[in-house]
Specification:
Elements lengths: L16 E5 L2 H11 L1 E7 L6 E6 L2 E6 L5 H13 L5 E10 L9 E9 L19 H14 L3 E8 L9 H8 L4 E3 L2 H11 L2 E11 L8 H19 L2
Parallel strand pairs: 1-4, 1-5, 5-9, 6-7, 7-8
Antiparallel strand pairs: 2-3, 3-4, 5-8, 6-9
Bound molecules: hypoxanthine.
């Protein structure tokens, strides 16, 4: 039976579309609360993965861990060993623009980064990690029909959470970057290199300049809204 160093499904199928929350317990929560006929496909390193049904379609959900090294290795194995064709990261981000309020939903049309991950591709320039238009437009349509406002734009996928120089974030914000998180540029690059689709969306869990933070209960509620937006797209 097929396995990789980090994923051992023991014969449980993995769907063509995988939702990737950072936290494996979030993956479990999604499987238990939104999917039916759930089977667990991974326990390696407690990076839980599940496959189930939504609207009559098979959908998988798995933790990605934090940061580009973790998220991109799971993306790579899901695509190259298990034939996954669509990756949808669902996470949280730190707002960097005034128009962003806590619990708003940000969609990464593109992801800038301070990571060197893309250097491995030895491109003669700077690669711009970009969302799948098909997934992005489907989420935009779904948001419109549900009456949910989206902020779509560039995000920063940073290797650094505790920043030595806070003015770094100001410079990204000056370029119109909406928010900071830690995985998307890696996932988009792995997907682009493999010719598959990826999208990342986030709820705003804190704001770098407004100094606001959320409780875990509030985060859970806004996470629910994001799930209800993304599941119909994942199950198309
Ligand atoms: N920085 C990086 N990643 C994040 C943040 C942040 O402030 N908030 C949520 N994910």
């Amino acid at each position: 039976m097929t396995s990789t160093p980090h994923i051992n499904p023991q014969g449980v199928p993995i769907a063509k579309t995988v939702l990737l929350p950072g936290d494996p317990l979030r993956a479990q929560f999604i499987a238990e609360n939104y999917l039916s006929d759930v089977q667990q496909f991974n326990t390696v390193r407690n990076m839980f993965g599940f496959t189930g049904m939504f609207n009559g379609r098979q959908v998988s959900v798995m933790g990605s861990g934090m940061g580009i090294p973790s998220a991109s290795l799971y993306a790579y194995e899901l695509i190259h060993t298990f034939g996954v064709e669509r990756l949808i990261r669902i996470g949280s981000c730190g707002g960097m623009q005034d128009q962003l309020e806590l619990f708003d939903i940000v969609v990464a049309a593109s992801a800038s980064t301070d990571s060197h991950f893309m250097h491995q591709y030895k491109l003669p320039g700077t690669f711009a990690p970009t969302a799948s238009w098909s997934l992005l437009s489907a989420v935009a349509q779904e948001a419109e029909s549900q009456g949910i406002q989206l902020h779509v734009g560039n995000v920063l996928s940073s290797d650094v959470f505790y920043r030595h120089d806070p003015s770094d974030a100001q410079r990204w914000a000056q370029m119109g970057v909406l928010a900071v998180e830690m995985e998307t540029a890696g996932i988009y690059s792995v997907a682009a290199h493999a010719g598959v689709e990826a999208l990342a969306l986030f709820t705003v869990s804190d704001h770098l300049f407004k100094g606001e933070e959320t409780t875990s209960e509030q985060r859970q509620k806004s996470f629910t809204q994001m799930m209800e937006l993304v599941l119909p797209v994942a199950a198309r």
